[in-house]
Write a structure and sequence with these properties.
Shape: globular
CATH topology of the largest domain: Tachylectin-2, Chain A
CATH superfamily of the largest domain: Glycosyl hydrolase domain, family 43
Largest sheet: 8 strands, antiparallel
Strand content: over 45%
CATH class of the largest domain: Mainly Beta
Distance between the termini: 31 Å
Number of helices: 0
Strand order of the largest sheet: 4-26-29-38-31-32-33-34
CATH architecture of the largest domain: 5 Propeller
Number of strands: 39
Length: 483
């Protein structure tokens, strides 16, 4: 019996290496900035935030949330982390730019240099072998492409071939490549779905050389009793705890949660124990409280690239608006942090003394189907409000509708404390406002859903947006994470 380690937080597409006494994990960060978050651990159970790879990417209008443009569901996907000849490499594709980026650094804290790899390589994995560099990538048809010496594009006349084909899969064909050379053989790990229903399954294909045929099939179809959705999409790592495969599981509104599963090699194949214990990981520096008196802590990420002209941290987090929009999705400078399951609750004080009529400032359970507790002003009168959204379009479609006002209560003055609690055992968010005695519920519990419009787990978010005229300012103080 082995010990599996479960992360109760949205940390999708993990890629893990072991280097100089530590495990390092990089994760997809989508449309949040800074991006390319790296975690560190000595034992696979206790993890801490370590660094980010970049602050900005291309500074496009869509990445900056200018006008109605956005990159929800796009941005940075499925990074590959490798260490080779004294250099750390991070590579990933950007789905809004249709580009592939390669970052290099001598230290995982940076600084990082950046170049592009000509082409778009979906869910790529880097491989360094015998003085050459390769990318393995694709969906359904999995390609292997040799890179030139500068790693700026395919090598002219270099190896370029399809190595695995999952044609005919009506659900999800093979993708999420992670390739390694071990014991003189090349092992390629991927995810796909069962063909008769959606369920994550890990597959492995192996070859004696990069020119030979890759053969294999499914090696892990198990949910470890955590949730009936399968666990897959990841790679292998060897360290003091032995051999582990680090994958993730679709887990509802909280997001996509990694699971590290032990295995042993037997006749050139990973073998998993039939019975395992599951321990929850201890996560440090990935979420928490903040008073914003002179800045913000590293676990915060902005939804899209921030506009520094409109924010400041001076005895609070100040947001000034510069455009009119109808919901929080288009609100610039929304500040977010991950939530940890199974239940997460936070509260914050909002100073709305300088908002305009039609402005909204608040704390939300932030994803496509959001719940928002905050304050607004109408004809000079302040109101506590609870807004919500239930998306009615396809799974990729971002709702452009105004939030539904579920409750609106007059309040005296522009100072209000609000709280939001998310229960991921039921995927619901409940909103509260402070009274003279305690917090009272406002609105009704709202159903949360993981959708492809955001493609991320639910987060706490601090937002201010204008529906009538821009230029209003809200200040957030004393954000307190309660669980």
């Amino acid at each position: 019996m082995g010990t599996c380690y479960h992360f109760n937080m949205d940390i999708p597409d993990p890629d893990v290496i072991f280097h100089s006494g530590f495990y390092y994990l990089i994760t997809t960060t989508m449309h949040f900035f800074p991006g390319g978050e790296i975690l560190r651990s000595e034992d696979l159970r206790k993890w801490e935030h370590f660094s980010y790879v970049y602050n900005t990417l291309e500074n496009t209008p869509a990445q900056r949330l200018e006008g109605a443009e956005h990159i929800y569901g796009k941005g940075m996907w499925a990074p590959s982390l490798r260490f080779h000849d004294g250099v750390f490499y991070v590579a990933f594709s950007s789905n809004d730019m249709n580009k592939t980026y390669l970052f290099r650094a001598a230290d995982l804290k940076g600084p990082w240099s950046r170049n592009e790899i000509k082409g778009f390589y979906h869910d790529l994995s880097l491989l360094f072998d015998d003085g050459k560099a390769y990318v393995i990538y694709g969906n359904t048809d999995i390609h292997l492409t040799e890179l030139n010496d500068e790693m700026t594009g395919p090598k002219e006349g270099g190896l370029d071939r399809v190595i695995v084909d999952d044609s005919g899969n009506p659900m999800l064909g093979l993708e999420g490549s992670h390739i390694y050379k071990t014991g003189g053989k090349y092992y390629l790990f991927m995810i796909h779905s069962l063909r008769d229903r959606w369920r994550r399954v890990e597959a492995m294909y192996v070859a004696d050389s990069l020119e030979d045929e890759f053969t294999g099939g499914d090696i892990f179809d198990n949910d470890l009793g955590i949730r009936d959705s399968g666990i897959a999409q990841g790679g292998i790592v060897k360290g003091p705890q032995g051999d582990y495969m680090v994958m993730f599981q679709d887990s509802g509104a909280v997001g996509r949660l990694p699971v590290a599963v032990p295995f042993r090699w037997q006749e050139g194949r990973p073998v998993f124990d039939e019975e395992n214990t599951v321990e929850e990981c201890e996560l440090t520096g990935l979420c928490g409280s903040d008073d914003f008196k002179a800045g913000h802590k590293e676990f915060w990420q902005f939804n899209h690239e921030p506009d520094q002209r409109l924010i400041k941290f001076e005895n609070g987090f100040h947001i000034t608006t510069d455009k009119v929009c109808q919901n929080i999705f288009h609100a610039k400078n929304t500040l977010t942090q991950k939530m940890a399951g199974p239940v997460a609750r936070a509260e914050v004080q909002i100073d709305a003394a300088s908002i305009n009529d039609g402005d909204y400032a608040g704390l939300s359970a932030f994803q496509g189907d959001y719940a928002f507790a905050g304050i607004t002003k109408e004809n000079g009168v302040y109101y506590a409000v609870m807004l919500s959204n239930t998306s009615r379009g396809g799974p990729w479609d971002l709702s452009e509708e105004e939030g539904v006002t579920e409750d609106k209560i007059p309040v005296t003055g522009g100072l209000l404390s609000v709280s939001v609690e998310c229960d991921f055992t039921t995927d619901t968010a409940t909103s509260y406002i402070a009274t003279s005695e305690s917090f009272r519920q406002i609105g009704t519990p709202h159903r949360l859903r993981f959708r492809l419009d955001h493609f991320t787990g639910c987060r706490f978010a601090l937002s201010c947006f204008s529906t009538k005229e821009s230029g209003g300012t809200a200040v957030f103080r004393d954000f307190v994470l309660k669980s």
